[in-house]
Every structure is written in C-alpha cells, then in structure tokens.
C-alpha cells in the first residue's frame, strides 16, 4: 500500500469514529441535542432549590442578557451549593410542549427567573420580578439575583 492509501483509510476511520461518537452522545441525551441544564425537569420533587430561567423560542438581546447574568450570578455566588446539589440552575424553554406546564405552575407572563424550593411536601417559590428593571445595569442585576437567592436559601430548611 502506498502512503496516500494509508492516509485515506486513516481519515475515513477517523470520520467514522467521530460520527459514531456523535450518534452515541445524541442517543444518551434523548436526541434532544440540549445541554444538561436545559433538560426538562421530570416533575419529581427534588431535594434542592432550583433557580430557573424561563424563556421562549423568540429571544431578544435583553432576554439573552438576563440568561447570561442569571447564570453568572448563580454560578459565581453559590459554587458550594451548586457542587453539593443543594442548588441547581435550569434554563427552560417554555415553548416546548413538555415544558408548557411551567407557565401555569409559576404563573409566568414573560421571561422570568424563579427560585423554587423542592424540599418537603409543599413547593415554595419566588419570581424575581425586578430582573427587567435591573437588566440594564449588570452589577445591580447580579447583586439582586445573588441577594434574593441567598435570602431564599436561608429560608429553606432540611427536612
């Protein structure tokens, strides 16, 4: 075999392996192509507090900023709680049929950040409704989300 034939076979093998890897990854994620944080909540009560960012299919620059700032506030403000599983961040598209129930569950009227306590028998939640007021000032937004999350976490009790 000449060198060109060996290189061709090696490249074809590499492409086949890459395609196989992608197919396995898609099968493992349910074929949704979504990241872990964007997957749908199963509806089962979770022993944790969840910070949700709810959005729809159509997203403006402000909506994208709210998502980015929310992620930054939660990830930089609560790394220990995220690592321990006491707090989780979920990004959810409520325009997907399996997520439509969140609109009624949390009385959503627009893109929203919701803190939900899934501990114990009854669910407690809070809409951080000032995000729209503060989105034009990143530091104020971050302080607001961190402060509200800290207060919300402080109100939770382990049962």
Describe the protein:
By secondary structure, the chain is α+β, with helices and mostly antiparallel strands. It has 2 domains: 1-33; 36-155, Glutaredoxin. The protein has 6 helices and 4 strands. The chain has helices at residues 3-28, 61-77, 79-84, 101-105, 131-134, 138-155, and strands at residues 49-55, 87-93, 112-117, 124-127. The chain has a 4-stranded mixed β-sheet with strand order 2-1-3-4. Strand 3 (112-117) and strand 4 (124-127) form a beta hairpin. Helix 2 crosses helix 6 (138-155). The longest helix has 26 residues, at 3-28. It starts with a helix and ends with a helix.
List the helices and strands and how they pair.
Layout: H1 3-28, E1 49-55, H2 61-77, H3 79-84, E2 87-93, H4 101-105, E3 112-117, E4 124-127, H5 131-134, H6 138-155
Helix pairs in contact: 2-6
């Amino acid at each position: 075999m000449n060198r060109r034939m060996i290189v061709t076979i090696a490249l074809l093998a590499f492409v086949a392996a890459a395609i196989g890897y992608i197919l396995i990854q898609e099968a493992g994620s349910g074929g949704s192509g979504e990241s872990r944080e964007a997957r749908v909540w199963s509806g089962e009560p979770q022993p944790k507090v969840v910070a949700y960012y709810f959005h729809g299919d159509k997203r403006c620059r402000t909506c994208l900023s709210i998502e980015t700032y929310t992620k930054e506030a939660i990830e930089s403000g609560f790394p220990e709680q995220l690592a321990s599983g006491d707090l989780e961040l979920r990004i959810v598209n409520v325009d997907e049929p399996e997520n439509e129930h969140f609109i009624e569950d949390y009385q959503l009227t627009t893109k929203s950040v919701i803190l939900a306590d899934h501990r114990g028998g009854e669910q407690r939640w809070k809409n951080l409704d000032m995000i729209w007021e503060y989105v034009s000032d990143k530091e104020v937004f971050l302080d607001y989300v961190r402060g509200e999350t800290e207060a919300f976490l402080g109100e939770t009790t382990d049962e």
